[in-house]
Amino acid sequence: MGDQAESEMNPQQAARVLRSNVEGAASILAVLANRFEQRCNGTLVGLSPVTGEHGGAPNYVYGAAKAGFTAFLSGVRNRLAGKGVHVVTFCHIAARAPRHAND
Predict the structure, then answer these.
(1) Which H or E element spans position 92?
(2) Catalytic hit among 62, 70, 73, 76
(3) CA distances (Å), origin 84, targets 9, 44, 76, 87
(4) What per-residue confidence (pLDDT) applies to 49?
(5) CA dihedral 46, 96, 59, 74 (to 10 degrees)
(6) CA dist., res. 30 & res. 19, Å (int)
(7) 14 contacts 64 by C-beta, under 8 angstroms
(8) Which of 2, 9, 25, 78 is the 20 to 30 A CA-CA neighbour of 40?
(9) pLDDT of res. 86
(10) Does the active-site annotation cover 60?
(11) Where are the alpha helices (DSSP H) in 1-97?
């Protein structure tokens, strides 16, 4: 996810957060999208937290990365519409749960 304060002070750290959360996942999905398109079948699922929908004020660099990934998924979905391939964006919320019943 990356540390927001470090990303603010170090552009290379911000770039790492963006690369790992957009480029990495998008690169893999692009390869799979091409294969699924050739087969005319399949479902691609991308995980993107709600942070990507709302900008994530506490860690906006990470939020921006996830927003970019969500937009990428939307583009792939539009590209593959009507070609037998489904693209699903699963937006999740991180939940903190106690580890033990007594916590």
Answers:
(1) strand 85-92
(2) 62
(3) 45, 11, 13, 10
(4) 79
(5) 20
(6) 15
(7) no
(8) 25
(9) 97
(10) no
(11) 4-9, 11-18, 24-39, 51-54, 60-80
Name the β-bridge partners of 43. Answer: 86
pLDDT value at position 58?
A: 81
This prediction's pTM: 0.82
Distance of alpha carbon 75 from alpha carbon 87, whole angstroms: 10
Show the tokens assigned to 1.
């996810």
Q: What is the pLDDT of residue 99?
A: 60
Tell me the C-alpha distance between 103 and 98, whole Å.
5
Whether residue 62 contacts residue 4, with contact meaning beta carbons closer than 8 Å, is answered with: yes
Residues of the chain below pLDDT 50? none
Rounded distance between C-alpha atoms, residue 18 and residue 91, angstroms: 18
Cα(11)–Cα(7) distance, integer angstroms: 6
